[in-house]
Amino acid sequence: MDAFSDLSFFVLLMKRGSLAAAAQEMGVTPPSVSKRLSALEARLGVRLLHRTTRRISLTPEGETYLVEGTRVLAELDALEHTVAGSRATPKGLLKINATLGFGRQHIAPMLSKFSRAFPEVEVQLHLTDRPVNLVEQGFDASVRLGELPDARLTARLLAPNRRVLCAAPAYLRQAGEPATPRELQQHRCIFLRESDETYGTWHLRAGAKQETVKVRGTLSSNDGEAALGWALDGQGILLRSQWDAAPYLRSGRLRRVLADWSLPPADIYLVFPTKHHLSAKTRALVDFLLDGFRSRREEAGGDYGGW
After folding, report:
1. Which terminus of the chain, N or C, has fewer Cβ atoms within 10 Å?
2. Rounded to an integer, what distance in angstroms lies between the CA atom of residue 214 and that of residue 199?
């Protein structure tokens, strides 16, 4: 096997995520894939993967081989299409990651349209609120909310998005409305169990003033839709993104709380590994999603941030 063939094999293996899945894609047996991987590692003189019965993960050398190898393959593909005088047709497997709620509500419908526009692209959408490593887990792109990713990734803004505090009018009539962040500690609050560090801790800012408040409540969840339902049912004050809360704020079923205070940003980005040449399928996805969210960016200055 030549070096380019080995690179293609290794990239496919990491995209599929397991020896068995790669074997199915290649039409061979898992032992054949394992044997080829061992031969590749022997040729290079390094171990590329940690292997257990359940999963595979990259060694530092494997990550370098994958990242740089993917770049080399992309450059070779771009060179061949340039020489041939044709534009690459988007095709092949495209693995995309997104958060559960936003992915279900906004990304999945757009990918249905994308699939119709590019029928030669096989789309795999993986929804999770847990952080993912795009390179190690073989994703072509990810839709993320909040802080920008590390320098190895390129980010394109899909839509501005702010976090807001809100509650049902019935709750505010019964419990009163907090005038300062500190008064949140006297209220029932609903929050998401996203990580041990941020569990029940809200950070607010107004000009030069900053407040960090540890809130309390009897209801918490790792699912934003469940938490939103509790807020609509008058169970307390919720911190939620505009993309999710805006329809209820607009209708009056929820009301802003501490509207003069801002919370950490939650802008929505499409991120993908930084490469000199993007593959045709990834470029098509980037352009398609940027166009699909254009109206959100253009209307970002409104009361509900375009949502």
Report:
1. N
2. 9
Bridging pattern class, strands 163-167 and 255-257: antiparallel
Is there a single domain that holds both residue 13 and residue 149?
no
What is the SS3 assignment for 8? helix
The pair of structure tokens assigned to 7 is 């690179």
Please say if the pLDDT value at position 85 is more than 60: no
- Measured distance CA(303)–CA(307) in Å, rounded: 9
Give tens-digit pLDDT for 159-211: 999 999 999 999 999 999 999 999 999 999 998 876 544 568 999 999 999 99
pLDDT of residue 198: 57
Provide the domain count of the chain. 3
Helices (H), the chain: 3-16, 19-26, 30-44, 60-84, 100-102, 108-117, 169-175, 224-232, 242-251, 280-292, 294-298
Pair (271, 152) in one structural domain:
yes
Closest CA to 44 of 91, 94, 9: 9
154 and 273 co-located in one domain: yes
